[in-house]
Amino acid sequence: MNESRVLLRHVVATVAYRGGKAIRNAGPGFANYGAPETSRTPAKILAHIGDLMDWALAMCEGRRDWHDSTPLAWEKECERFFGSLKKFDDYLASEKPLQVAAEQLIQAPIADALTHIGQIAMLRRMAGVPMKSEYYVIAEITAGRVGADQATPSKEFD
C-alpha cells in the first residue's frame, strides 16, 4: 500500500475516533437540538458527514455523485456514519485505483467532515451534554478502526 493510502486511512480513522467521541452518549434528544429553521441540527450535520464520506468514496471510484440525505433517527444516523466510513476505508484498503488525488480527498470531504464534527462537539456543550476534552496526540487511533468500537480515551480533561 502506498504512503498516500496509509495516510488517508489514518485520517479516516481519526474522523471515526473524533466523530465517535462527539456522538457517543449524546442521547437521541440531542439529534434535534438548536434552531432547525435557521441552522443544521446535530442530526442534519451527522447526515451531511455521511454524505461527505459517500462522496469521498464516489470520488475514489471516479464518480461525481452527491446526495443530500434526509436525516435518519439519531441511532440509525450514528450507524450510517460508521458504515459510510467503513465503505470508504475498505476502498482505501483495497488494490482498486484511486481516481482522485489524496490531497483532494483531504482538502474537501475529509476536512469538511472534521469541521462538522467540531460543530457537533460545540452543540453538545451548548445542549448541556458536553464531552470531555482530550489530549488527542496520544489517542489510540489505528488505520482500519472506523466503527463504533473506538479505543478508550488515553487522557481526558475538563
What descriptors fit this protein?
globular; about 5% strand; mainly alpha; 4 helices; about 160 residues; two-stranded antiparallel sheet; Four Helix Bundle (Hemerythrin (Met), subunit A); 2 strands
Percent of sequence in beta strands: under 5%
Q: How many runs of DSSP E, i.e. beta strands?
A: 2
At CATH level 3, the topology is Four Helix Bundle (Hemerythrin (Met), subunit A)
Number of helices: 4
CATH architecture verdict: Up-down Bundle
Q: Segments where pLDDT lies below 50 for 5+ residues?
A: none
What would you report as the Rg, rounded to the nearest angstrom?
Answer: 15 Å
CATH class: Mainly Alpha
> How many domains would you count in the coordinates?
1
- Spatial arrangement of strands, main beta sheet: 1-2
- Average pLDDT level: 96
Question: How does the helix and strand content classify structurally?
Answer: mainly alpha
- C-alpha termini separation: 39 Å
Oligomer: single chain
Per CATH, the superfamily is dinb family like domain
String of helices and strands: HHHHEE
Shape summary: globular
Largest sheet: 2 strands, antiparallel
Q: Could you explain how this protein is built, in words?
A:
- The chain has one domain (3-157): dinb family like domain (Four Helix Bundle (Hemerythrin (Met), subunit A), Up-down Bundle), CATH 1.20.120.450.
- The protein starts with a helix and ends with a strand.
- The protein contains four helices and two strands, in the order ααααββ.
- The chain is an all-alpha fold.
- The longest helix is centred in the C-terminal third of the chain and has 26 residues, at 102-127.
- Helices cover 54% and strands 3% of the residues.
- It has helices spanning 3-23, 42-60, 74-93, 102-127; strands spanning 133-134, 156-157.
- The protein has a two-stranded antiparallel sheet.
- The model has no long low-confidence stretch (mean pLDDT 96).
- Helix 1 (3-23) runs antiparallel to helix 3, helix 2 runs parallel beside helix 3 (74-93) and helix 2 packs antiparallel against helix 4 (102-127).
